[in-house]
Amino acid sequence: MAFRRRYGASPLHLLLVATSFALAVYAGVRLLKADTFGVALWFVGAALVHDVLLLPLYSVTDRAAQAVCGASCARDFVVRVGVNHVRVPAFVAGVLLLVWWPLILRRVDHFTSYTGLPADGFLARWLLITAALFGASAVVLLVRMWHGTRASRRAARARARVRKARK
Fold this sequence. Notes:
The chain has helices spanning 2-7, 11-34, 36-69, 71-75, 77-104, 110-115, 122-166. By secondary structure, the protein is mainly alpha-helical. The chain folds into 3 domains: 1-34; 35-69; 74-167. The longest helix has 45 residues, at 122-166. The chain is extended and about 80 Å long.
């Protein structure tokens, strides 16, 4: 218990974090051996594109959606919770597109010569993954709404019983 108080989580958490850092370092070393300049250029370019282009774009989009929706949306459970059920799959699909865009958009002819694998099919797979992400998110939202309405009905019945008992 002293470890949890000092560290803030279980020893298993520390082990998993240390393992993930070791795996990331290993992957980085292997990646940098292949094409150091290209990898560094990709990371700098990705950081610049995110900070200069994407962050302002999705911040303005989010603010505009909040402004259009107004204060009534802040009270509405479906809208308040549903926004994140759109944000998360869109973010994951965007990251996948960012990482695999040359193959998704068929911009690499040398992929086949390096790997011996065809470069087609990545667009269809990305679209299927994106559809699956949004579909799974919609199912989770529907389950949350169903549980939320059940809980609110149960709470309303309990309040009605309390009011009836007071009378």
